[in-house]
Amino acid sequence: MNIGIEALSFYVPRYYLDLAALAAARGVDVDKYCIGLGQEKMAVPPPDEDVITMAANAGTQVLTHVDRNSIDTIMFATESGVDQSKAGAIFVHSLLDLPSTCRAFEIKQACCSSTAALDMAVALVHRHPDKKILIVAADVARYGFCTPGEPTQGAGAVAMVVSSSPRLVQLDNESGSYTEDVMDFWRPNYMDEAVVDGKLSIRTYLHALGESWQGYHRQSGRGLDEFERFCYHLPFTRMGEKAHAHLLAIGAATEGGAVSREPICRVSDSLHYNRQIGNSYTASLYISLSSMLEHADDLSGQRIGLFSYGSGCMASFFSGIVGNRYQEWLTGDLHRDMLGDRVELSYEAYEELYAQSGPITGDCQTPVHDTGQFRLAGITGHKRLYERVGASAAVPEPEPVA
Ligand code: HMG
């Protein structure tokens, strides 16, 4: 049975900071960010935008051509969860008006949980081929102010429908995984910013890529030349280029000779969107996949390789075949317009939003910013209240966010 991705779309907040402005404020050569990290802009969420609103916006887009009543399960992958108990998926289920027969739960392992959700979705569809699974993955990548991680911040959400009509990508059965207990990046419950050993995280990412690829290669017998394109988890786009060079070196060693074809062309189409968004953790790999499908020349029937990395760490290398008429189902214009219509923040406005988007405690009404179709209206009695833009959630006793 063919199973895979039927529909895919992403959403990003309406505000961004140009990294040239951050470089000027930090006294850093802008080339370090633009060339060294390969980033131009980073998405900045306002306080009334969180992982729920971003995921609901992405979900609305992806369900445009899919019957909501066919959705059997919604899985929410995130490492920026808003509650320790209640799944973010239930808020999104409600905002998207999904049927009450549709299950909803949240899943976590750093940036890799969206891929774990994809694996689980494939298994569910295998059991019930008439069902469709909605995966939403959303995150706010937030590091300490003035830290080396700061230029790799970002935010965004993807939504994917997985079914037995894989119009975009039909997934192969083989995948190679790697797990190791390592403290390269983590966020304790009492902290709002990630703690990271940047250099260790890069080394671990590359090591996990090598191990995952070897596992995949042993299972499938496929060599690197059998892939037309590769997509990587992109904390910053240079990481994708480094990863690809590393994979080609490993491939050349294990496959007994040089792997043909120029390396960068096989990854460059996947970098466009992430360069404008920054890290979006669980969403990052699938925004990279969107970028590749929406920028590469015809990939119909071609095999692509995907690498998912989640710090801590768990990683997977897997693959799929691009659908024969996939271009008819892409929403590249929507994505390009969304990125092009964003509002540029001054450095001072970024600093202000950074300070406001810490944890909200107590009752409050969030100030109204430019958002998509949904916003966090406020919190009352420790309950988060979401509203459709233009409709009031009637939050009692407003207290502005500090
Ligand atoms: P840093 O130490 O400030 O940067 O932090 P650097 O000194 O290593 O420089 C970065 C690159 O810019 C280097 O290139 C420099 O040479 C170059 P490289 O040698 O690596 O090829 N450079 C310049 N290039 C041109 N012109 C110049 C110039 N100056 C320097 N003038 C670091 C960099 C990535 C460590 C930091 O931003 C960080 O800690 N980021 C967060 C962690 C991260 O993104 N890790 C990536 C792997 S882990 C991962 O992907 C998982 C994650 O998504 C979380 C999850 O799973 O949930 C993060």
What is the CATH superfamily? Thiolase/Chalcone synthase
**Topology as a string of helices (H) and strands (E):** EEHHEHEHEHEEEEEHEHHHEEHEHEEE
CATH class: Alpha Beta
Judging from the principal axes of the Cα atoms, what is the shape? globular
CATH architecture: 3-Layer(aba) Sandwich
Order the strands across the largest sheet as they lie in space: 5-4-6-7-1-8-13-12-11
Cα end-to-end separation: 54 Å
- Given as residue ranges, the uncertain stretches (5+ residues, pLDDT < 50) are 395-402
**Radius of gyration using CA atoms only:** 20 Å
What hetero molecules are bound to the protein chains?
A: 3-hydroxy-3-methylglutaryl-coenzyme A
Write structural notes for this entry.
The chain is α+β, with helices and mostly antiparallel strands. The chain has a single domain (4-388), classed as Peroxisomal Thiolase, Chain A, domain 1, CATH 3.40.47.10. Helix content is 32%, strand content 25%. The chain has a 9-stranded mixed sheet with strand order 5-4-6-7-1-8-13-12-11, sandwiched between helices. The protein has a 3-stranded mixed sheet with strand order 3-2-14. The N and C termini lie far apart (54 Å). 3-hydroxy-3-methylglutaryl-coenzyme A binds next to helix 2, helix 6 and strand 12.
